[in-house]
Amino acid sequence: MKVEKIEKIKFKKNMFKVFFEDGKYLAVFADSIVKFGIKTGYDISENEFKELVSYDKSNVAVSYALALVSKRSYSSKNLQTKLLQKGCEPENAAKAVKELEELNYVNDEKFAKVYGTYLSQKGKGEFAIKAELKKQGIEKSLINDVLETIKTDIEPYEQIIKILKTKFKKFSGKDKNEIRRTASFFLRRGFSYQDIAKAFRLCSR
Questions:
Q1: Does the CA dihedral 145-151-156-161 come out positive or negative?
Q2: Which residue numbers delimit the RecX third three-helical domain (predicted)?
Q3: What is the CATH number that goes with domain 58-106?
């Protein structure tokens, strides 16, 4: 296939349309054009065309990935899922995530620590944090490291006491119904029975 003309796509950075003599066209990145030496009059073979399409799809996945991480943090698993939802092929999505990991734009360890701390500050307990990090695709060993780090900053029972003093100022620890309702609140937030009991005991003195 011969290249008839190449046009810059308006409002899309580094994107061009490559028109062929048979009426077909292909939207590609500037990097793809340079790599394959595409220019007007160039006769591209079928194999080269397939390689060009494959290479450009890989670039598209990286471009999508960069756009996503520029707005918020992602774990490797969630970023790959997002790329698949955008229509990227599994192989290209995986390669894009790996490339961003190498550039340190995606870092599961950093993500887990920041997100785990955020959840803790929001009043979530150990079980809830563990479940949420697991949902984000974080490995078990890394989750355990994050939980240990959070415990170093504040013990779970201390966190419960802190919430009791702000959200449950009238808590006396003497009324059974009050104890049951308040305990249910903390259980839903992922705290253990042991930490809840310890916090209630200390606040009832």
A1: negative
A2: 154-199
A3: 1.10.10.10
Domain definitions of the chain by residue range: 1-44, 58-106, 107-153, 157-205
C-alpha to C-alpha distances, 125 to 54, 76, 128, nearest whole angstrom: 46, 24, 5
Q: Whose structure tokens read 């349309």? A: 17
Of 106, 102, 39, the C-alpha closest to 72 is 106
User: Can you spell out the DSSP letters for 146-186?
Assistant: HHHHHHHH--HHHHHHHHHHHH-TT--S--HHHHHHHHHHH
Pick from 58, 10, 14: nearest CA to 34: 14
pLDDT in tens, 25-83: 888 888 888 888 888 888 888 888 888 888 888 888 998 999 999 999 999 999 999 99
Quote the crossing angle between the two packed helices 90-102 and 76-85, to the nearest 10°. Answer: 140
**And the tokens for 134?**
């697991």
Residue of 22, 27, 26 lying closest to 10 (CA atoms):
27
pLDDT tens sequence across 113-157: 999 999 988 889 989 999 999 999 999 999 999 998 887 778 888
Global confidence as pTM: 0.70
